[in-house]
């Protein structure tokens, strides 16, 4: 129980103004911003303050006094307890509107730039997630689950409406077998590379989760192989759509794929460019990139983008195209400086974080680039996460 003496009021009425970038509703109490998960703009809610900082507070809903007409019954009975979803309390069309507003506001607040028109590529609302990270639970019958919202505790899960059928078949059946020795998180759930967690990928009627498993996936007509321990996008129909939107009509002499992963994007670049360089820091992903790519066309560098910039003679020659798909931290200062120096005529920036994308976009716009096109891909419906594809051309 929260100590009410630390807060303006332990029980307060708040009107929700908008959805913040993290997916929670935003209201105010005595002038202080309060974030309230699972609420919608226009709603009046009775809340309990559960955490208070100098500039903001977080609250949980005790009662909805006035509900939004856009509020819906969630598809999943674990919604609000399981931390996997943010938006099941509203319909998919409103989720789309929320995400567009979130991105626009983030660009204005962090980048201090206008993103212009944002095109939205929608997903199936449910049943689309092919990759999940499960955690050990104390439940013997249901040994795997998802973390609770704002907690390290786990919710045992037998079925997830967001996941593809193969994942749900795993949860209903094979998950018990995976509690033994044959998964990559360690036999006791506390050792091994996963440390009590397991990555499960489902596609083509089967699942992969063991340390030695491999996933073989046909993506836009190309065969891609990788391990469950490698990062790979989890919404395959949207990934195919992104590949088509990103590379259609492109060609040239030389392309650079930084943060190249298992070679997913480079596999399509090598059909369009005579020479391709793929840079990937993770050795396991890099080893799969070598298997997925044509060595006559594509060279794979194992190491950080910063190391490649500092040590490779190839970094001195501007490529016709740079594809950047960085982690949430976005582009480092060294990588931004490299992009400015090379002056490549075209940069395709794939981002999983609107905040760092806004920062990096502002830098590119200040240094000779124009944002020609912005597409939002809804890889993770029912959540506040967004995936962006931005096309920057040199002025």
Give a description of the structure.
This protein is of the alpha/beta class. The protein has 3 domains: 4-66, Nucleic acid-binding proteins (OB fold (Dihydrolipoamide Acetyltransferase, E2P)), CATH 2.40.50.140; 103-124 and 235-394, Rossmann fold (3-Layer(aba) Sandwich), CATH 3.40.50; 131-215, no CATH class. Helices cover 22% and strands 30% of the residues. It contains 8 helices and 21 strands. The strands form 4 sheets. The protein has an 8-stranded mixed sheet with strand order 7-20-21-19-18-15-16-17, with helices on both faces. A hairpin with a 3-residue loop joins β5 and β6.
* Measured distance between first and last alpha carbons: 57 Å
CATH topology assignment of the largest domain: Rossmann fold
Query: Could you name the CATH class of the largest domain?
Result: Alpha Beta
Radius of gyration: 22 Å
Q: How many DSSP-defined strands?
A: 21
Helix fraction, binned, reads 10-25%
User: What's the domain count?
Assistant: 3
The global form is globular
Number of helices: 8
CATH architecture of the largest domain: 3-Layer(aba) Sandwich
User: Strand arrangement, largest sheet?
Assistant: 7-20-21-19-18-15-16-17
Q: Structural class per helix/strand content?
A: alpha/beta
Largest sheet: 8 strands, mixed
Mean pLDDT: 91
Q: Which sequence of SSEs, written as H and E, runs from N to C?
A: EEEEEEHEEEEHEEEEHEHEHEHEHEHEE
Low-confidence segments, given as residue ranges, are 1-5, 185-194
CATH superfamily name of the largest domain?
A: Vaccinia Virus protein VP39
Strand content: 25-35%
